[in-house]
Specification:
Number of domains: 2
Shape: globular
Order of helices and strands: HHHHH
Number of strands: 0
Radius of gyration: 17 Å
Distance between the termini: 35 Å
Structural class: mainly alpha
Number of helices: 5
Strand content: under 5%
Length: 108
């Protein structure tokens, strides 16, 4: 797991470009980059989320240049589907913290 920290010294123009690209990606509703931005912005703030999504874009560009284009977007719900029980437990805990009693039933 990566922790937050300072970015290393590099090209300020590249950082600006990546952060701008991250903001554009954040406006898209049905992409994994948009979902990542919204998830991080809720916890860490918009600036840090933009830098993190910019880093993800940089990693994607590196892999495309190294391996060639592979087109598959995981979608906005991929992160939630990876560990469904953890998401359910977290959301139930939040609702119980607000004073509600929660019973989960799977849909047909």
């Amino acid at each position: 797991m990566r922790r937050g920290g300072r970015t290393r010294h590099g090209s300020p123009w590249l950082r600006t470009l990546l952060v701008q690209a991250a903001h554009v990606g954040a406006r898209k509703k049905d992409t994994d980059l948009g979902a990542q931005y919204r998830r991080l912005a809720a916890r860490r703030g918009k600036s840090r989320a933009a830098v993190a999504v910019g880093h993800t874009i940089l990693v994607i560009v590196y892999h495309v240049l190294r391996d060639g284009p592979v087109s598959h977007d995981l979608g906005p719900h991929d992160f939630d589907e990876r560990d469904r029980r953890a998401v359910e437990r977290r959301l139930v805990h939040r609702l119980e913290g607000l004073g509600s009693t929660v019973f989960l039933e799977p849909t047909a």
